[in-house]
Amino acid sequence: MPVDDDVLQLPELAGKAMWRGNELGSSAQRDVVATGFDALDAELPGGGWPCRSLTEILQPQPALCEWRLLGASLKRIVADGGQIILVSPPKHPHLPGLMQHGLHPNQIVWLDAKTPAERLWTTEQLIKSNPAGAILSWLPQARQEQLRRLQVHAQTCDSPVFLFRPAAAQFDASPAPLRLLVDLGPDWQLAVKVFKRRGPSHEHSLAFFSIPDSLADVLTPRQRQPSQFPVALENPRVGTLGSSTHTVAEHQYAH
Predict the structure, then answer these.
(1) Is the pLDDT of residue 254 over 50?
(2) DSSP-H helix ranges across the chain
(3) 3-state SS assignment for residue 84
(4) Which of 75, 92, 174, 249 could form a disulfide with 102 if both were Cys (CB 3.0 to 4.6 A apart)?
């Protein structure tokens, strides 16, 4: 049957929210915050960390890569007057280190929720309050249905919401539209794999340097890339304290 062309026209909002499976999703209706890494921005829908959506960051152990990965973007957020809200970080924030990223103590709010239920409730209330800034929450034990509830509320939150979870969670289903696996690499590098996003799968890991601004001008080339300057091997014939190295004369005398 002939179909009127108007019937095939999608509403404007629905059209902008759709994308082809082999293309990155459109972020026309979603603000983003630049990550500070051009290679990473190129692999994220919209070119940055999404707002009104959850972002899951998985890593081998907590307090390993969070600040090096997010430092540049959080600096932009506080420069615009926002605050960084932390929910149960596994370690006490190191203020001198955060100041190297341009973050000052009066721009950081730390909420120490003890139990998994308290962490989840606190995170949900923060998302629903729609604060100006960014929400960083450590939820190692969150279940899929709990994450789905957070994602529903995050769609009305103008701030980026980052959830930190263990690397083993990559094998569990999650409603978060953006999921990354992050680990440390050699020479101040971060190894990042975007294994879930609105668009085609990302097959390879990204590797890029992540050096705090305050250290960029003081690190020597050897300190920036120690793997490029191998340490010379010691002379095996030179004995050292506690070693079992003997000279030929000592060997003959022993016999």
Answers:
(1) no
(2) 5-8, 12-17, 38-41, 66-79, 95-100, 116-129, 144-154, 213-216, 221-224, 248-254
(3) strand
(4) 75
| Residue 226 phi, psi dihedral angles, 5° rounding | -65, -25
Q: pLDDT tens for residues 153-200?
A: 999 999 999 999 999 999 999 999 999 999 998 888 899 999 999 888
- pLDDT greater at residue 211 or residue 170: 170
| Encoded tokens for 155 | 């769609």
- Which structure tokens are listed for 254? 């022993």
Longest dimension (CA), the chain: 105
CA distance 185 to 208: 9
Per DSSP, the residues of 97-139 read HHHHTT--GGGEEEE---SHHHHHHHHHHHHHH--SEEEEEE-
What per-residue string of b and e applies to 105-127 under the rule 16 or more CB within 10 Å gives b?
A: eebbeebebeeeeebbebbbebb
Per-residue pLDDT at 24 exceeds 80: no
Considering only CA atoms, which of 133, 31, 25 is closest in space to residue 77?
133
Sign of the CA dihedral 14, 145, 60, 87? positive
Whether pTM > 0.85 for this model: the answer is no
- List beta partners, residue 178: 55
Are 169 and 119 in contact, with CB atoms under 8 Å apart? no
